[in-house]
Input
Amino acid sequence: LNVNEIEEIFQHKLIMTSFSTSHSFVLSDSIGYVEQSSPYINMNFDKKYPTWLMSSDVGGIYAQVLNSLQEEVSFNTNFDYFLTSLAKTAMSNGLFCYSNPKLLKGTYKSINKRENTNKTLFKFVKQHYSVQWFFLLFLNIVIYEKRILFFSFITSLFYKKRVKKIDLSKINSIAKTDKTIIEIDVLIPTIGRKKHLHAVLLDLNKQSVLPKNVIIIEQNPKKNSDSELDYLTTQKWNFNIIHQFTHQTGACNARNIGLKNSYSDWIFFADDDIRMETDFIEKSIQSIQQLKANAITVSCLLAHETEKYNFPFQWPTFGSGCSIVHMKKANNISFDMAFEHGFGEDADFGMQLRNKGIDIIYTPTNKLVHLKAPIGGFRTKFIHQWEKEQIQPKPSPTVMLYRQKHNTKKQLLGYKTLLFIKFYKLQSVKNPFSYLNLMKKRWEVSKKWSKIVQQQTHEI
Output
């Protein structure tokens, strides 16, 4: 046991962490058929990594938290199942759950692998997911593993779903804070939103804690165009402005240019059509220090929308227009250009952070208003190379690329099944056999182009 790291690992009371020496758990990798979009099961064992998959090898939880949950998660004869069930139930309610190799010293013996039976898998899915996932698990195992687990399926039907609403609000989640000064740069890519960007800058100019630099990457694809942001030099600003103009469009490229021009440890990734209160940065710094977080995503809703949450929790994705990240600890990661003009760059950047040991915490009390300005997204229709294909890819090759990079094989197959089912009612081919044959071809085209896009990016 690495006793010297205990205080650092359990920085506040709402932390539960463990480590599996054999990298195995009470649930088999077939849980991926159900957890199709989750970043929490394909973990990096070399780093602190957010996950509800728990191991009895080594770990810990504050007694106050355990006592508050004892009526919600009944003890099971299998200790690993109990720990995993507890983490799965409480994680979405504000318990921060991790795998952390720092619990043990550099060299350790591998404890025998867990016995992860089919019965345990079906029982867990029945107790912790909506009923449709229970049936999808059975279907996926039949399709991809050619096994009919009828006994495990039937015996698990009688288990009741475990409660998901847990109140941890009475437990103090604030870590020991210090008065360390945090310097933050703000990174804003913009294109065709002069008026809205001006409003963002005016909000930043009134902040109770000012940013050090505001980095603006202005894009305009017209060859002979110049910057339209005259107010950057004609008005007085309470921070340093770093402005770069480029004819190359694309959010990935713009943000990567901005990252190269940032010199502070922290970066606030912002959109060019948001509004914020004068204490937004100050409150965000307080949240970062109280939670000992290295990345937060803040509430960023439309004016008429209501925030559903009132407590911080681990966020399964990443918002590249509403997040603050300790980029120095992220060790110079960047946005993958393979996702340019496609989908998935935000989620991919979030996964890069997690694989560096940086968890992403959603803090609903730190609020931005998203105006969703009418001139947004892709300004002109970008023609992808695969649009010339006779059979169009499904899903988008960049979506396929993300899933191939960050999902397990069974997560990808589970996503494939659900995609085929959901898309059936949205298309014109109603013969199920013809539809299935067509979708298999479209899936292969997507895989082909995801590989091409990745290769082309690496060649640049």
In short: The first strand starts at residue 15 and ends at 19. The chain has a mean pLDDT of 93. The radius of gyration is 24 Å.
